[in-house]
Amino acid sequence: MSTNKSARSVRNGSRDGADIAVDLFPFLRVYTDGRIKKFVRHATVPASSDVKSPNGVITKDVVIDDDTGVSVRLFVPVASAAAGRRLPLVVYVHGGGFCTGSASDPVFHRYAESLAARAAAVVVSVDYRLAPEHPLPAAYDDAWAALRWAVSRHSDPWVASFADTTCVFLAGESAGANIVHNVAVRVAADAAADSNDGIDIEGMILLQPCFWGTERLPCEKPEAWRATPMLLPERADAMGPYVTAGAAVNDHPWINPPVEAIASLPCRRALVSVATEDLLCDRGRRYAARLRDGAWGGEVTLVESEGEDHCFHLSPKPNPNAVLLMDHVAEFIAKGKTRKLQRQLHRSRWPKEHGPNWSD
């Protein structure tokens, strides 16, 4: 009996006899005895509003909701801000399977800092509440609150002084990209109800988005794999029900965005990136195709990173593909500034005798 139990425990990844109840490796595992083992190391990088980072960015943390304790970490590139022009505003939502990570985590801090420096943008990184203690839609609510806070007149002086709230981007990777999509859907719903406080989103940036469903797409079948992906299908199957506390199955609109939700998105442009060795690759491709071929009507850019796995761009190791992806993201944001100037110029040249310029 003890030998069989020991063998089963080793097979299930436990050394003390408990079987795995929910396996969400590489994020966490839940055992039948109630223990939760998180594989992501809990570490933090302190914010620094007085000392610039090596790439010239200052940071600080701001609590935006006293009731929930939700906060954001602000990233401002000093040289760009000192130039006197308003900078694009990027609301960034980190990944981590909805259940790990934070804005102060070294991985996500480093990426947000690099994004602020490379794109010359004010980045608002959302420190949202995590499952299972706070199941979805808590993360959606927190990211929505952060967006509303960032574009309001009552946000932090850094945002008020340096950010252009008429040139707003939503960005995230993996679970963060899922959150970005769902927040954008909420913006659209509020706009339809005339209650979105005038939130205007220029673009969405979805890096290896975490969408799923009950149907297996080609990249999700083992015969298509050149190597075992970081995420596995059975673990992806378990994620939606677990992080929603059973409130959503894998074909729920939160997890598997329907065509009508994608068509409703309020932004003008979208950038979707996929990694060819990622289990979720075809989900991102399908999302981009539905943007391009459906009723949405905006401009979509699909970036494919050959030979890479899920969230490869977050690794601290030098990687030309990560640099290239950041270049795409920075150019996408820069184009928003150009489009804004073009719209302003167009409005200024519109003859008054022609009446309102409805093309805006």
UniProtKB/TrEMBL annotation:
Q: Which Gene3D superfamilies match?
A: alpha/beta hydrolase (3.40.50.1820)
Pfam families, per this entry? Answer: Abhydrolase_3
Report the domain of life of the source organism: Eukaryota
Query: Which parts of the sequence belong to the Alpha/beta hydrolase fold-3 domain?
Result: 90-313
InterPro entries per record: AB_hydrolase_3, AB_hydrolase_fold, Carboxylest/Gibb_receptor
Single GO MF descriptor: hydrolase activity
- Output the PANTHER family linked to this UniProt entry: ARYLACETAMIDE DEACETYLASE, OS09G0435700 PROTEIN
Q: What is this protein called?
A: Alpha/beta hydrolase fold-3 domain-containing protein
What organism does the UniProt record list as the source?
A: Leersia perrieri
